[in-house]
Design goal:
Number of helices of chain A: 19
CATH architecture of the largest domain in chain A: Alpha-Beta Complex
Distance between the termini of chain B: 47 Å
Oligomer: heterodimer
Number of domains of chain B: 3
CATH class of the largest domain in chain A: Alpha Beta
Strand content of chain A: 15-25%
Strand order of the largest sheet of chain A: 3-5-1-12-9-10-11
Order of helices and strands of chain B: EHEHEEEHHHHHHEEHEEEEEEEHH
Number of helices of chain B: 11
Radius of gyration of chain A: 28 Å
Structural class of chain B: alpha+beta
């Protein structure tokens, strides 16, 4: 009998079982893997932002020491290999669709950003490949680069297929009703905000190792991916036209993604192609400079906002006109991020009867822009929560009260917004109240006065955000322009001794799935967590899965696991009924035991497992042996986490330094499986949001050179930039998944930037400062103080 | 990096012979600037002469000065009892350079010879009336720094040690660049019997410099208030993504005020 010693089930803060290998430096990342006969690829990249390629001379490089191959776009064209595809398109206002220019694996005819790959050198060593690349002579005819995306329509045309450099011009909502609301409003609050451009900066740079087996004509690709099955699908179906069964994609340990490792990039595709061409395994690993130049960046919006209020300060309309920068080529989810994942979030936590938004996605000579932690939702939350705070100040209300009177009431759920989404459940006042209590909101003015005595400006700011995670259902995704399904898969294999192997289509690159998913299974089956092994990231092992992004792993992937376990329990009951000579309907499953109701007759889960694999006494005529079940779960709706974050800052007027002195985060993530892991996600998200609000800014100069291409100039948040976070929760369990869970991975990064900028503006409000752009660097804050003082002096 | 020769001699004279035997050789001290430069293929010397074996890392008390060997690591200066007692500001400066890894590799001589405009050490050299001892001569601090990344050092001249005069009082305060955490403005203030010296790093287009007006003001009244009325000119100050000349001018005054305690 399987003795149950300890159950680390749902709700328990179990320590992450995967951390031992990471903390002891034993993680196995793509670049750690080496294959016999392996060669190294190095990409020669454009050092100009926009140019026609007049000629490429690779002759000297071909004969350089150690070189086994030098290839250009012409070689790719001859082999008719396709480029990366856009995974989601939207319709335009004029009835046309998103313009999708080709993205060749290596530049053909033109380069479009600094970092665009012009040629690849494959050599015995990386140093030899680099040396050979220096011998390649590229003759460019330089064109005027387009960098300022707001005026990109007036710039030189980057793609033949994209007139006015506009990929799409999309709209959502009722323009007529919204404009009418603005016309009849008692007050219209106007704000223009910019969401600064960010570099994802995963700790592990991207890497690929491709190997071709000429005997069975198949490829194996190890790569840094958040979704290996999607990588396989894109490579097999769209690039190489080979059966999926001939390509195995393995994403081993992956050191962070934040969205940047969702997409198939040109480098892994070139490695796959070159591995067959050369007949040897080909490895490529980015250095940090390449990561800055070629990983998809995030954000980069400007939003013009008009918020219409009636005479009671109730919101009656919202109009948002957005222009966003999508960079040189369309990346996989670059179109959906500023549209479907942004426009649909504009109702926030508020009951807004009329909303309209227009989004123009522009091409520029900068690297592609795509999903980055939060992906569209931080941009929506930032503009809305900045506007809410501004509106409260303009009408003379406390920002908390102004939010409160505009919240969707608790009894209004399910709530249909004016921007397509239907929120299944939520209750917003409790997390506002709790966050205010956590930070001692009512005594803030005392703290402000005390700080003023020390010559410091103290401010407080809040943000009440809504998030939509786990895009679903697939039919809606398809109707909105998505070209993939949005379900998740799980396979639960019970081994003969009762241990469990869980194969998930989700992918962990820091999230702690090995722990959280094992807890779900352990809880449901009443067995110890150490009996559960979670396997992910290998297309030859796991069922087809959609991977991890958009805070979907638990709500979608965890639910799929839960469903597969339910099937295991159902079949086990049949086996138990046979063994216990009882009716299936009389069998109860509790605490890992199958019991005949009202008797002491029972069988432990392990006994059932053994019977399934050694079916000597087994209902073989009605039931197959073995105990293994699959589930493909397509959720019926998004999940909608929400919360309120409140930041408190102190500003030193002499230097402009903003210190974050306190932080309260109260989130509603539904049920929590592992509160410790959730808290870690909240901390990490807030840290990234503080990075965006105070420190980070990807800056291209007018020639399209990335000036912030290293940590000398790109400022990442460090531990001493962060306060100790106060984290709390409320809970309205999700109504449409079995676990009652929502998502927590992105919430911190979504909630925090507006809370922090609102606090900065609040701190400076005694000086008359009403606006501050991100990042609020010391120089910028100091300048705002100087300017306010010179205005005051006039 | 490009492949190159590497030699580690046991004395300065051997080091000089080694470098003369190369076409374009480079002395390698802590390598905190040179190694990244090589790794990025921005330099391709014919060889590297590593002077870490040349016995240049002692710290000694010379009555009126503390003499520190050129190859002394920042961490060693930071934790030296001798330095902490005689010139605590110098120990504080060394302790604030880079991170722990950098402090355990980077050297005094390397930093001073490189004269990076945002390095901390040059300000101490200038403010503490230091003498730079090389294999051929002794150079006064006021003569030594000649411009951004430029010094009086000639080809094949090695810094062996630097003597820092003991001040009556001194302090170093820096405002780090938020990204790199190099000094965006660093101010070393040192009070001697014959007056106050104020050296500013991180801010000047010509590298580290002394600030005459602040020196005059503090020499007559060693108090932060003495600076209040001063207008700090932004002329000749560095302009970059992180700080305009005007902001740097503000920080020069502010960091100096904070240094005068």
């Amino acid at each position: 009998m399987n003795e149950v010693t300890k159950i680390d089930g749902i709700g328990s803060s179990v320590r992450r079982t995967e951390d031992k290998k990471f903390l002891t430096g034993k993680g196995r990342y793509t670049d750690d893997i080496n294959r016999p006969g392996q060669v190294q690829a190095y990409f020669l990249r454009s050092d100009v932002a926009h140019a026609e390629i007049k000629s490429i001379d690779t002759k000297a490089a071909q004969s350089a020491p150690g070189v086994v191959g030098v290839f250009t776009g012409a070689d790719i064209a001859v082999d008719k290999v396709g480029g990366p595809i856009c995974g989601w398109v939207v319709p335009c206002r004029d009835g046309s669709s998103t313009k999708e220019p080709p993205h060749p694996l290596l530049a053909q005819g033109k380069v479009r950003f600094v970092g665009d790959a012009v040629a690849v050198v494959v050599a015995e060593t990386m140093e030899q490949a680099k040396s050979a690349a220096e011998l390649i002579d590229v003759d460019y005819n330089e064109l005027t680069p387009v960098v300022d995306f707001v005026n990109a329509d007036k710039g030189a045309q980057i793609h033949e297929e994209v007139p006015n450099n506009c990929y799409f011009d999309w709209e959502l909502g009722d323009e007529g009703a919204t404009n009418k609301a603005i016309e009849r409003a008692a007050k219209v609050v106007k704000l223009s905000v910019r969401n600064n451009r960010l570099v994802p900066n995963a700790m592990e740079p991207r890497s690929a190792l491709a190997e071709y087996d000429s005997l069975d004509e198949s490829y194996t690709l190890h790569t840094t991916s958040q979704n290996p099955h999607l990588t396989r699908l894109v490579l097999a179906a769209f690039m190489f036209a080979i059966p999926e069964s001939k390509l195995r994609v393995i994403a081993p340990d992956v050191g962070g993604g934040f969205g940047s490792k969702i997409y198939v990039y040109i480098e892994e595709a070139v490695c796959v192609w070159a591995s067959k061409k050369i007949g040897r395994p080909v490895k490529w690993t980015a250095d940090r400079t390449q990561a800055f130049l070629t990983d998809c960046h995030g954000r980069d919006h400007v939003n013009d906002v008009q918020l219409a209020l009636d005479e009671n300060n109730k919101i009656i309309g919202l109009r948002v006109d957005t222009v966003c920068n999508l960079g040189a080529y369309l990346s996989a989810f670059s179109v959906v991020v500023p549209t479907i994942l942004h426009g649909t979030l504009l109702s926030g936590q508020y009951d807004i009867p009329a909303i309209y938004t227009n989004v123009k996605g522009m091409a520029t000579n900068t690297v592609n822009v795509d999903a980055y932690r939060g992906a569209g939702r931080p941009e929506a939350t930032y503009l809305l929560e900045r506007t809410m705070e501004t509106a409260a100040k303009e009408v003379g209300m406390d920002p908390a009260e102004f939010r409160r009177i505009n919240f969707i009431p608790k009894d209004a759920f399910p709530y249909q917004t004016q921007v397509a989404l239907q929120y299944d459940i939520g209750d917003y006042e409790p997390h506002l109240d709790k966050a205010m209590e956590m930070i001692d909101y009512s005594n803030f003015e005392k703290r402000r006065a005390e700080a003023a005595k020390r010559g410091m400006y103290r401010g407080i700011g809040m943000s009440s955000y809504i998030e939509a995670c786990g895009l679903a259902p697939s039919a809606v995704v398809g109707a909105l322009g998505g070209r993939v399904g949005q379900w998740e898969s799980a396979s639960v294999r019970v081994n003969p001794t009762g241990t469990i192997s869980v194969f998930t289509g989700s992918h962990s690159h820091g999230q702690g799935h090995a722990t959280t998913f094992a807890q779900i299974v352990a809880d449901k089956l009443g067995i110890p967590m150490e009996n559960v092994e979670v396997i992910h990231g290998d297309t030859d092992k796991t069922p087809f899965g959609m991977g991890s992004y958009g805070s979907r792993s638990l709500a979608s992937g965890g639910s799929a696991i839960s469903k597969a376990v339910d099937k295991i329990i159902n079949k086990s009951k049949k086996i138990a009924a046979h063994l216990l000579e009882a009716s299936e309907d009389d069998i109860d499953f509790k605490d890992g035991k199958f019991v005949v109701g009202g008797t002491d007759k029972e069988k432990a889960f392990g006994e059932i497992a053994l019977a399934a694999y050694v079916p000597h006494n087994y209902p073989l005529e009605t039931l197959e042996p073995g105990l293994e079940e699959n589930a493909f779960y397509d959720p019926t709706n998004f999940v909608f986490p929400s919360g309120t974050h409140i930041a408190e800052v102190e500003i030193d007027p002499a230097t402009g330094v903003v210190e974050v002195v306190d932080w309260a985060a109260c989130d509603d993530f539904g049920n929590l499986v592992n509160p410790m892991i959730v808290e870690g996600q909240v901390h990490g998200g807030i840290a990234q949001g503080i990075g965006q609000a105070l420190l980070e800014d990807a800056h291209y100069d007018e020639n399209g050179q990335l000036l912030t291409a290293s940590y000398m100039d790109y400022c990442m948040p460090r531990a001493d930039d962060l306060p100790s976070f106060k984290v709390g929760y409320t809970n309205t369990p999700c109504t449409h998944n079995d676990l009652g869970v929502k998502g927590c991975g992105e919430a911190g990064a979504i909630a925090s930037p507006p809370a922090l900028i609102n606090a900065v503006i609040d701190a400076l409000s005694p000086l008359g400062v009403t606006d501050m752009s991100m990042p609020a660097t010391p120089q910028k804050v100091w300048k705002a103080i100087q300017e306010s003082q010179s205005v005051a002096a006039e | 990096m490009y492949s190159t020769k590497y030699i580690k001699p046991n004395s300065t004279s051997e080091a000089l012979e080694a470098i003369k035997s190369m076409g374009e050789g480079k002395f390698l001290a802590g390598g905190m600037t040179l190694i990244p430069t090589l790794k990025q293929r921005l330099a391709s010397p014919d060889g590297l002469v590593d002077i870490s074996g040349c016995d240049l890392d002692s710290i000694s008390d010379e009555v009126d000065a503390i003499k520190i060997g050129a190859m002394t690591k920042h961490a060693s200066v930071g934790e030296s009892g001798l330095v902490k007692k005689a010139i605590p500001a110098l120990a504080k400066l060394a302790d604030g350079i880079g991170d722990r890894q950098v402090r355990n590799r980077g050297t005094l001589g390397g930093s001073v010879a490189n004269n990076d405009p945002s390095a901390c050490y040059p300000s101490a050299v200038l403010a503490l009336k230091a003498i730079v001892h090389t294999n051929t001569r002794s150079i006064e601090a006021d003569e030594f720094f000649t411009g951004m990344f430029e010094t009086l050092l000639e080809e094949n001249e090695i810094i062996e040690a630097i003597s820092f005069s003991k001040p009556a009082k001194a302090n170093y305060v820096k405002f780090p660049n938020p990204a790199s955490r190099y000094a965006m403005v660093g101010v070393f203030v040192a009070q001697f019997n014959d007056g106050v010296r104020v050296a500013v790093t991180g801010a000047g287009e010509g590298g580290v410099f002394r600030h005459a007006e602040m020196e005059a003001a503090l020499s007559s009244n060693y108090n932060a208030d003495a600076l209040s009325a001063l207008e700090i000119s932004s002329e000749g100050l560095i302009s970059d993504l992180h700080a305009s000349p005007e902001y740097r001018a503000n920080l020069i005054k502010e960091m100096t005020k904070r240094a005068v305690v």
